[in-house]
Amino acid sequence: MCSEVIAYASRQLNYPTHDLEHAAVVHALKIWRHYLFGQRCEIYTDHKSLKYIFTQNELNMLQRRWLELIKDYDMEIHYHPGKANVVADALSRKSYANMALGFMMPHELCEEFERLSLCFLHHTTASVFEAEPTLEQEIREHQKDDEKLQEICELLKIGKAPHFRKDEQGTLWYKNRICVPNVDSIRKLILSEAHDIAYSIHPGSTKMYYDLKERFWWYGMKRVVAEYVAICDTCQRVKAEHQRPAGLLQPLKVPEWKWEEITMDFVVGLPRTQKGYNSIWLVVDRLIKVAHFIPVNTTYSGAKLAQLYISRIVCLHGVPKRIIFDRDGQTERTNQIIEDMLRACAIQYGTSWNKCLPYAEFSYNNSYQASLKKSMFEALYGKRCRTPLFWNQTGEKQVFGPDIIQNAEQQLRIVQENLRGAQSRQRSYADVRRRDLSFKVDDHVYRKVSPMRGIRRFNMKGKPASRYIGPI
């Protein structure tokens, strides 16, 4: 009997060694079923334990499924040491041949393939190579159609085009950079290859320009590259912004009277007290900055908060005209101050932070405020409140009758002027670090998405998610 090789096969799997050898047998039985089914066959392996697969007592689920398939065949497994199985062992080694290196097949080998009637199996990958015009050839062909490049060629003939040259094939070069004609398809291809493909991954305009500058040249190349990167949708979505923040500071208008406009916010994440409080509700007047600190629970409903507001705020100051919630820096700054106060009181009060809130509120309102140039209580009552340290320094004002109203109005105007001056200073400081940005009606914009830990955005969780959505 003459034995000949009629087919080869291989796979790469992440199995343990024993299962890997077993998988090779199963794979061979599957793809060569038309040869083996109904015929007596013998399998030779260098894995000795595989010959005992039929008598093994304990099998995992994968091995059980494979054994059911093997029982369909009339076969026997033999052990053949690897040292003796030279041919098969050599074929299992890594091949360092490069498929891109084409070669002419010898005539004798072609006849051998024809005699064996070999054919591709359905698992085989075939590669087809086709020669196509290169980018340099396309550039050379279209250089003749570019008027500006032809003008350079004419100047080159009379020696008035320094740094330009032509090679043996007639291609125009600027130093060592090929001159790209004004053809949209060619320039778009160059820009796309330098920016969009996986080998580039969207570099910035400066990096992209210097990369292209090594090889290509055309008029206004740097401007074209900058424009291409600026309108790239992917870059707009994912790139971090390294410019100054957009938008100048827009302070809110100074109110006309006390407690006509208020701001409010919540300080959350506090330890739960014995009375069930776990957050603080801050209510601050926008004119004189007087604040009230109300302990609440995050589970309170809107009706419950409304009742608290009436009992703690409306009964003292009336109903405001405007309520601003979490849209200005005033309450954010108050948040910082009260958190610092709570940290200072934590040593004495521990988790019973609600007991120190009345003292924190009094201390805050009776302290000097830089924007007002006085304390909040002084702006509200016309004088500071007494404390154990300053018991007699508050004094008694001898103002009666209409003078009381005039004095209150005068103090109010002073407060308003001080606030406007403070806003002007804050705007001048902030605008230095910001840039003006204007929009027109129907303009499309990208909206920044605030990063939230553990939240899935665009089917992606964490840092790989896009920074912006749009254009909208």
TrEMBL record:
One of its GO terms (molecular function) is nucleic acid binding. CDD domains: RNase_HI_RT_Ty3 (cd09274). Residues 185-240 form the Integrase zinc-binding domain. The lineage of its organism: Eukaryota, Viridiplantae, Streptophyta, Embryophyta, Tracheophyta. InterPro entries: DNA/RNA_pol_sf, Integrase_H2C2, Retrovirus_Pol_polyprotein, RNaseH-like_sf, RNaseH_sf, RT_RNaseH. SUPFAM superfamilies: DNA/RNA polymerases, Ribonuclease H-like. This is Uncharacterized protein. It comes from Paspalum notatum var. saurae. Residues 4-73 form the Reverse transcriptase RNase H-like domain. It comes from the Eukaryota. Keywords: Endonuclease, Hydrolase, Nuclease, Nucleotidyltransferase, RNA-directed DNA polymerase, Transferase. Pfam families: Integrase_H2C2 (PF17921), RT_RNaseH (PF17917).
